[in-house]
């Protein structure tokens, strides 16, 4: 019963941005996160960066997972990050990227604030573990 | 702590989001936050939207929000989805339908999961509505999947309750069974372009007329005896003074949405003119106080049980027939009763 007092749950937004209709991965991830006991908000397909920003700010998620397989990550992800900064939501959101990201780009993404990139072959356990360890603690 | 409230009151979205998180998590200090917010509330119109899964709630709410924005009003939405009773996890999918308000920060949309808490959802929802109200939203919409007690819960937080009924959703008995007739102020038959829509409207109308007639409505004094607080819900007087509207919509194509808003507006006017709004809010605050007292006492005594050696020890004694549950309860509550008596006699 004492669990009644505080009910903290890790909240995640699984986001699909841009012209990329491949959502099987995002669905599988959403489900894995749910089964890990997290609350998952799924954005739906073809979202604009500003929509992702809006959702991240309003939902106050701990984790933003961006699934992107279109190759447009270099354009879209910086836009999202700039938006988050504008609303003061950058510093306490863990940003993850999943998809086909070349090594050089991965380095760049990490420089601008992405915490981890999960490519093909990454396991669910790995990802869930990473989220558990790195989800920001909101005072 | 009150920095956060200052930021919220000055219109910072992030602060609003964070306050709602604290409310939802019941973080240490959230009670102070809600206390501070209270004096800034009372300006928003709160609308509860419920209906069976797939009846089109999210789509309609999206269009309603867009239409309110066209009318120059700001909107807050709280969408509640169920969570898994096993892992506590949830996929909150209502946001997917919010396509009409892209990038419009003046529609504040927040997904909440029904974290499997005992009645805690209604407290969290009430408090989150207060946050949106204090932030300055003109309209606050609470969207919840319709399943029994949940619907009663939103009645407690909403001024106007809207029930969505999809066409062909079964015969009259289904509607009675769901217990939705008593709580709706406005009924919306969504997906009205589907077969069976006019029949559903017809059936609804008939059922609502029964409710007005001689046959006692189940929402009155007698039917709801199982819920101790229902006496205050004002269902009965509402059935007398307000005839629920029935509106047909095709939310996906934006048809009938303006009619829905007009209908809601009419109900709001009725609330003001009949004095019902004041009565409603008094009832609501009374209910809120009752809930908080119940929860707080519960918490206090739960801690005491742990302090006394835990529930298991009591259960052992009861199993061994050394004592019985009533005596245990008397022992635990006794000191509290003594305290209260002492204070009263002073």
TrEMBL record, chain A:
Keywords: Cobalamin, Cobalt, Isomerase, Metal-binding. It comes from the Archaea. It holds the Pfam family B12-binding. SUPFAM superfamilies: Cobalamin (vitamin B12)-binding domain. GO terms for molecular function: cobalamin binding; isomerase activity; metal ion binding. InterPro entries: Acid_CoA_mut_C, Cobalamin-bd, Cobalamin-bd_sf. PROSITE patterns: B12_BINDING. Its cofactor is adenosylcob(III)alamin. Residues 9-138 form the B12-binding domain. Belongs to the methylamine corrinoid protein family. This is Cobalamin B12-binding domain-containing protein. It comes from Halovenus rubra. The lineage of its organism: Archaea, Methanobacteriati, Methanobacteriota, Stenosarchaea group, Halobacteria.
Automatic annotation (TrEMBL), chain B:
InterPro entries: GTPase/Isobutyryl-CoA_mutase, GTPase_ArgK, P-loop_NTPase. Pfam families: MeaB (PF03308). Keywords: Chaperone, GTP-binding, Hydrolase, Nucleotide-binding. GO terms for molecular function: GTP binding; hydrolase activity. It comes from the Archaea. Gene3D superfamilies: P-loop containing nucleotide triphosphate hydrolases. NCBIfam families: lao. Belongs to the SIMIBI class G3E GTPase family. ArgK/MeaB subfamily. This is Methylmalonyl Co-A mutase-associated GTPase MeaB.
């Amino acid at each position: 019963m004492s669990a009644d007092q505080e009910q903290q749950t890790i909240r995640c937004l699984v986001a699909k941005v841009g012209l990329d209709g491949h959502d099987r991965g995002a669905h599988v991830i959403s489900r894995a996160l749910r089964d890990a006991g997290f609350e998952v908000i799924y954005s739906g397909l073809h979202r604009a960066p500003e929509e992702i920003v809006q959702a991240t700010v309003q939902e106050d998620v701990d984790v933003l997972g961006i699934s992107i397989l279109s190759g447009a990550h270099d354009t879209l992800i910086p836009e999202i990050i700039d938006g988050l900064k504008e609303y003061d939501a950058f510093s306490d959101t863990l940003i993850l990227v999943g998809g086909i990201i070349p090594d050089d780009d991965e380095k760049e993404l990490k420089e601008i604030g992405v915490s981890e990139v999960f490519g093909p072959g990454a396991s669910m356990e790995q990802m869930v573990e990473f989220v558990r360890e790195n989800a920001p603690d909101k005072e | 702590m009150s920095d956060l409230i200052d930021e919220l009151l000055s219109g910072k979205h992030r602060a609003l989001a964070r306050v709602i998180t604290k409310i939802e998590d019941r973080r240490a200090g959230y009670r102070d936050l809600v206390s501070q917010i209270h004096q800034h509330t009372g300006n928003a119109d709160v609308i509860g939207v419920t209906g069976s899964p797939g009846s089109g709630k999210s789509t309609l709410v999206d269009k309603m929000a867009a239409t309110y924005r066209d009318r120059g009003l700001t909107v807050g939405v709280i969408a509640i989805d169920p969570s898994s009773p096993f892992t506590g996890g949830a996929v909150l999918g209502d946001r997917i339908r919010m396509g009409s308000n892209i990038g419009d920060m003046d529609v504040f949309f927040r997904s909440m999961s029904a974290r499997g808490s005992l009645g805690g959802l209604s407290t969290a929802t009430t408090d989150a509505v207060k946050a949106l109200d204090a932030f300055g939203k003109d309209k606050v919409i609470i969207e919840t999947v319709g399943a029994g007690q949940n619907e009663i819960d939103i009645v407690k937080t909403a001024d106007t309750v809207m029930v969505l009924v999809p066409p062909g959703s079964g015969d009259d008995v289904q509607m009675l069974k769901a217990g939705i007739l008593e709580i709706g102020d406005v009924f919306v038959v969504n997906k009205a372009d589907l077969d069976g829509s006019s029949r559903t409207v017809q059936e609804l109308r008939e059922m609502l007329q029964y409710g007005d007639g001689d046959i006692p409505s189940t929402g009155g004094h007698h039917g709801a005896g199982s819920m101790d607080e229902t006496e205050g819900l004002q269902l009965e007087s509402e059935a007398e003074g307000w005839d629920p509207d029935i509106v047909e919509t095709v939310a996906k194509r934006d048809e009938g949405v303006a009619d829905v808003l007009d209908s809601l507006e009419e109900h709001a006017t009725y609330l003001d003119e009949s004095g019902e709004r004041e009565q409603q809010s008094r009832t609501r605050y009374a209910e809120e106080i009752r809930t908080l007292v119940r929860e707080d006492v519960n918490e206090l005594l739960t801690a005491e049980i742990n302090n006394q050696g835990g529930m298991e020890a009591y259960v052992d004694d009861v199993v061994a027939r050394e004592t019985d549950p009533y005596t245990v309860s008397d022992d635990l509550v006794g000191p509290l009763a003594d305290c209260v008596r002492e204070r009263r006699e002073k």
